[in-house]
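Let us practice reading a record.
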Amino acid sequence: MAEQAKSTTELQHGSEIQRVFLAQKAAYNAQTYPDVQARIAHLSKLGKVIEAHKEALIDAISADFGCRSRTETIITEILGAHGAIHYMQKNLRKMMRPRKRHTGLWSLPAKNYVIAQPLGVVGIMSPWNYSLHLAVSPLAYALAAGNRAMIVMSEDTPKLCALFTKMMADTFDEDHVCVFQGGIISPEFAALPFDHLLFTGSTRVGKLIAQAAAKNLTPVTLELGGKSPAIVAPDYDMLEAAKRITWAKLYNAGQTCIAPDYVFVPKGLQDAFATAAIGKFLQSYEGLADKDLTAIISERFYKRLNEMVAEAQAKGARIIRPAGMEPEIVNCAYKMPLTVVLDPPEDCRLMQEEIFGPVLPVLTYDTLAEVAEYIKDRDRPLSLYLYSHDGAARNEVLRETVSGSVGLNDALLQYIQEDMAFGGVGPSGTGAYHGATGFDTFSHLKSVFQQRGFGNFTGIKLLHPPCGKMSERLLKLMGA
């Protein structure tokens, strides 16, 4: 407590984010438990302001990317944000009720229950790839749980950040919700003594965030990434698997933390898979100028992807792209076609780093056991995808691998199931949110023991001193 008090005192003479933090902390202390009507009203305001600015948000996101598919933005950013808000509005009353717990025999006639208490001031760090959704969704859970929230958005989406900052300032008091643009401010933000901090981003940066938060013992939820594998089992139609995996890989130009990072296909079928995947790309897009083909966010990431492909090719990998298409800048946007990489060497960057782009390495296997061993020997992924109608194959992969989530016969869609928790494991993240888990993540689940008694009698009084034969008999009954 003394260290916490000292850190709060030191903030008094700090920066703008420190000033806002102190204002939110004071506002929380003045109202530690907003009632259900107030929380639903906050969620309603959040939903209405997003809907009112929908077109402006879509335009800002597309401008930040250079070209962002309108359909993808509506599905993921707009509908995704509304999904979290609506879920909490619908289920909040139930989540706020006391939760009964079993009472031990010798504590009767007491009762036990758990209440969900707001934590206080929550920090949310949103990445650039789905900057709106990954700010609004955790914000909805934080508000539903009765908290105040500070949000920092990526410096790679400046237009969206400027618009969203104004939207929130026009909708909420600064001591309730406040938004900042990231960059040089991010380390200072992560070091604030939040009551909970949620970060979405890369594993490398996630480690730095965890280190900064640890100085204040701030609880963290880290939604990271990693190399999420897709596995096509021998019984599954290769053409259909290629279509579904390619759609997921190209969604947001592969700039998705749960995108299929690489794919395993039965030995001898890699060329058939590559042909089908390229065919799916050509069916979906009319060239690189197609407005539905999302661009790579910046020159830095565009160069990185090209360098990784070039390295793999120099080491012997086969690079397959649609005929006549190469990565290029189209109307000031960094565009890249689907790039299938066959026979990628294990030591190339494509197989060592999360790709985060429309580049798909293809590996081959003889048995599913071999695939499971490969996955187990590496960092645990955020997601894993298996394409199979064979129950035995599904059970084998589910049992033998560990991942944050699993998609069977489709990809990405597990993320948008609001009633399921979402989170990573090990290097792909810690903690989870979404659904009821999201509410609990931003709450303190306080255990309450209430002794009721019949008159002055309680069971534990039988063991009060002086302890004699009656106490000994009771202890034996209790298993001592």
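A brief commentary: The chain is about 45% helix and 20% strand.
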